[in-house]
Amino acid sequence: MVEDPQSQSADSVLTAYETTDSGLSSEEARQRLDEYGKNEVTRASERTALSIFLAQFDSVLIWVLLAAAAVSVSAGYLIDAGLIAVIVVANGIFGFVQDYRAEQSLEALREMAAPTATVRRDGESVDVDATEVVPGDVFELESGDVVPADGRLLAETDLEVDEASLTGESEPVSKSPEPVDADTPLAEHTSMVYKGTNVSRGSGVAVASSTAMETEVGAIAAELAATEETETPLQRELDVLGRRLGLGVVVLAALVVPLLLLRGTPLIQAGLTAVSLAVAAVPEGLPAVVTLTLALGVRKMADENALVRRLPAVEALGSVDVICTDKTGTLTEGQMTVSKVWVNDAVVDVGGEESETESADERVELLFRAGALCNDATLEEGDPTEQAIVAAADDYGFDIEALREDNPRTDEIPFSSERKWMGTVHDDVGYVKGAPEVVLSNSSRVLTADGPVDLTSEMAERIDQQVGTFADDALRVLAIAYAEDPEDIESDLVFVGLVGMIDPPRAEVADALAATGRAGIDVKMVTGDNVRTAAAIASSLGMDHEVMEGREIEEMDEDTLREHVESVDVFARTSPEHKVRILRALQANDHVVAMTGDGVNDAPALKNADIGVAMGMRGTDVAKHASDVILLDDNYSTIERAVERGRAIFDNVWKFVAYLLSANIAEVAIVFLASLFGYLVLPAVQLLWINLLTDGLPALALGADPQSGDVMERPPRDPNRGIIDRRMLSLIGGTGTVSTAVMLGLMFYTLGGAAAVTPYAMTMVFTGFVVLEFEKLYVIRWFRETPTFSNPWLAIAVGTSLLLQLAILYTPVAEYFGTVPLGLADWGLLGAVLLVALPGYLAVVLAIERFVPIGATTGNAAS
Q1: 3-state class of 497 per DSSP?
Q2: Residue 328 pLDDT class (50, 70, 90 cuts)
Q3: How many domains is the chain built from?
Q4: Are residues 485 and 519 in the same domain?
Q5: Is the pLDDT assigned to residue 720 strictly greater than 70?
Q6: Annotated catalytic sites, by residue?
Q7: Which of 257, 283, 302, 568 has a CB 3.0–4.6 Å from the CB of 660, allowing a cystine?
């Protein structure tokens, strides 16, 4: 392959590939196809449905549960093992349903390829399957074609190529066979065409310099294939929790079994106690409840136009503290629009406050009239720049179709990259549209309010200054003129004015950026556009706009880049590699980064980001499949709502993690302390049932808790601090101690001095623990400043769980749980237990509020 073909002459590239502008012979093409392989992007290894399902169980917490099930089977407790298995399998099914759609990034890249290509073989133009294009093939391009391979341009006629999906450049790029410098950014490789991009205008001939995985789009495919899936903060924290619980279970069993044996406890009894402790220590419902809560969040976000492709991404959005956003189609509308026009010494803001009065000026009317007639586009299709002028003329009041019918084109001079203007003749008048410096140089007069006057050097200088002013506002500027005699269309023009166009910011973006800023989230624009355009858009959106170019990134080592990414807010002329380096530098600085984008060039960064957010309407399939979240309405404010939803979900996760672990701590403490007195008070089957009731419907109903009003006024939580922070540990320990003390007191009271646990005492402790946990649930919600009666689903869940507990006590299934029916007096005693425990719980909460400081994490902020 030729290195830097963009900087080589066309002839030298032809020579290097041993071809001519007549193309290869059929025989040579076949040989090269055997040598280089088909011109297609390599498929990703496909994940089977089975592998996706098995991946749901790749969690330390799940492994601990499976180990507990195995121990239960070995001890003969099949019901216990069955309950654990049901919980584990249910969790796997929920995750599988959400993750079934496997990654399709590389497949989508393949689908970008042109189905056929026109190549020159044996001196003739023939159509071949695009996968058969080989290095050295000479291929032809026409308007509407998809470029089949990376190629060095040999010749062109008015060729413009839309490379937005590859480079992020919002406007079609004019191409020329003239070489460019080797270190020129990709978006400025005017001598090259690239696989997967679209010819928007003109025609051209190129020699294929790279095919298949050697193309720019192939490099992106390779980057995607090499990118490993990132774990969200919650996934990492749950994995750490599982490891700690697993280690704790082993240590606990190792301590308890010898201790019980020394006290004369039979080996079977000691083993059963160890199993009970293992079951008590593991929050069996935690994976399922987390999965279901995230799934509920997914449904709510879908209603808000954010489609979540990976469940954990819901919560991870709440941890984001940096958003790296593309410009074109994300912060902007994604289409060119006329913003301002200039006629001699008068600037008109199109659509602005001045437009109604100024638009009455006949010069503005003539400007739009000429722009619509000297134009090949329609409102529906055509070059984006020309479409913008047609749309502006339509908004001004012209009926474009009628205007063109009444003023038929009798001659034309097409646009070319050398000429830089186009002209049309309509009977006795000619109109010209093109680059301001060229149109101005061909003008002898300028149209003023008093009619045409001679164009003086002073006037020409003022026009040049106005062009510069428009350019400073990131406007693409075209000049419009007319010729009173069509024979003089190339030399004696009357200069009418200037048209300034821009891909404007979305109306809602400024407010959304302000909201994310108040939430402590830093926003950085990362775009393939030029510095001037990027800075102007950033300024109009109220962003700080210290700008860095991609070529500057290339000159920095990783440490230097890590330092600069903190202060730079706008990165311009970036390549896919630059975007990934920026992301990795931010992540190395301990940021949780979301990347938004819509183009193929965004895909590697989307996949490397902690959260990849693709645009659903304008986004390419590649970007969508590489992302975690798709914005169905392409609305930046949807990101704000998604972050808000993620933070609210984390609040709810915090509540039920605290709730579940406090229950498990109390269970372990009761079983352990009771065993020291020779009592096996809660066998494994009862502990599993307690966990099923408390970890099931009530914990799940917490996922429907309303969000706190200040959720978007807090700083992002620090994922390195973990979900189990000091305040949660204090809450778990304090409430767990209260529960243990109250339950042990109830056990000894109901035993009445018996040497072994009686069915009655066991039933009282069993039922008492259930009702006590429901009381504590409301205390934890109060601790998080959640109104008591704000969640009707929670009340229904608690009521249903109580009915299930009654079924255990008063139906034949009681035999399997070793329980006996309770009388009214017994329920009165349990009511007294609740009254005793409540002041203890509240004292714990007040002590934490008083003595445990609120950290910087979202998990703490609400309290």
Answers
A1: strand
A2: confident
A3: 4
A4: no
A5: no
A6: 326
A7: 283
**492 and 485 in contact (C-beta within 8 Å)?**
yes
Per-residue pLDDT band at 542 (split at 50, 70, 90): confident
CATH of the domain at 437: 3.40.1110.10
Residue 192, domain CATH: 2.70.150.10
d(CA 635, CA 505): 11
Q: Are residues 674 and 792 in the same domain?
A: yes
pLDDT of residue 359: 43
Domain containing residue 36: 5-43+113-220
Residue with tokens 């429901």: 774
Q: How confident is the model at residue 438 (pLDDT cuts 50, 70, 90)?
A: very high
Q: What is the 3-state secondary structure (H, E, C) of 91-150?
A: HHHHHHHHHCCCCCHHHHHHHHCCCEEEEEECCEEEEEEHHHCCCCCEEEEECCCECCCE
In angstroms, the CA 600 to CA 603 distance is 5
In a domain, 76, yes or no: no
Q: What is the CATH number of the domain that holds 583?
A: 3.40.50.1000
Strands 421-426 and 429-434: antiparallel
Task: Kindly give the interhelix angle for 824-851 and 726-751, rounded to the nearest 10 degrees.
Answer: 150
The two three-digit tokens of residue 706, written as one number: 């309303």
Residues 6+ apart with CB under 8 A from 218: 41, 42, 195, 210, 212
Q: Which amino acid is at 858?
A: T
Residue 862 has pLDDT above 50, yes or no: no
Give the model confidence (pLDDT) of 646-662 as tens digits.
888 888 888 888 888 89
Confirm whether 290 is domain-assigned. no
Higher pLDDT, 99 or 404: 404
Q: Nearest CA to 90 among 235, 290, 242, 246?
A: 290
Nearest of 533, 530, 529 to residue 500 by alpha carbon: 533
CA distance 77 to 186: 66
Q: What are phi and psi of 346, to 5 degrees?
A: -140, 120
Distances (CA, A) of 279 to 99, 103, 273, 594, 692: 29, 37, 10, 38, 11
For strands 411-413 and 421-426, give the pairing. antiparallel
Of the pLDDT bands very low, low, confident and very high (cuts 50, 70, 90), residue 472 is: confident
Residue 53, in any domain of the structure: no
Same structural domain, 455 and 343: yes
Contacts of 442 (CB under 8 A, 6+ apart): 421, 432, 481, 490, 491, 492, 493
pLDDT score recorded for residue 360: 40
CB atoms within 10 A of CB 233: 23
Residues sharing a CB contact under 8 Å with residue 557, sequence separation 6 or more, in sequence order:
none
pLDDT for the residue 691: 78
Highest mean pLDDT among 123-132, 167-176, 240-249, 778-787: 123-132
Of 473, 502, 531, which residue sits at a domain end?
502
Question: Do 481 and 618 belong to one domain?
Answer: no
Closest CA to 570 of 631, 528, 608: 528
Domain identity same for 373 and 467: yes
DSSP H helical ranges for 155-232: 164-167, 216-226
Last residue of a domain, one of 479, 502, 525: 502
C-alpha atoms less than 13 angstroms from C-alpha of 324 in its C-beta half-sphere:
34
Residue with tokens 């990795």: 584
Rounded CA gap, 665 and 776, in Å?
13
Within a domain: residue 467? yes
Provide the CATH number for the domain around residue 842: 1.20.1110.10
> Are residue 525 and residue 563 in the same domain, yes or no?
yes
A 10 A CB-CB count for 814 gives 16
Residue located via tokens 């410096």? 437
Whether residue 165 contacts residue 230, with contact meaning beta carbons closer than 8 Å, is answered with no
Which tokens sit at 101?
A: 């759609």
Q: Are 616 and 759 in the same domain?
A: no
How far apart are the C-alpha atoms of 524 and 548, rounded to whole Å?
A: 11
Residues 470 and 609 both lie in one domain: no
- Global pTM? 0.68
pLDDT mean over 152-162: 90
